Amino acid sequence: MNIGIVTGNISKLAVIDVDDLNLLPELNERLPELKETTRVRTRRGYHYYFSLNGEYIKSTNRLFGKRLELKSNGNYIVAPPSIIKTHQYVYEIPLSEILPIPKTLIKNNHCSDCPKDKKPFKMPKYHGHKVDCIRQILNRDLREGERSNSLFTLYNLLIQNKNTKDYSKKIIMDKNHSLYKPLTAVDLNNVYRKNYNVGCISVREKLSYIECDHCAHRFKDGKFKASNILIKNIRALPELSNTQRGIACLLGTVFEGEYPTINKIALKAKMDYRTVKKAIDDLNKKGIIDKFLYNQESTKIPVKLQG
Question: Which CATH superfamily is domain 3-109 in?
Answer without folding.
Answer: Bifunctional DNA primase/polymerase domain (3.30.2250.10)
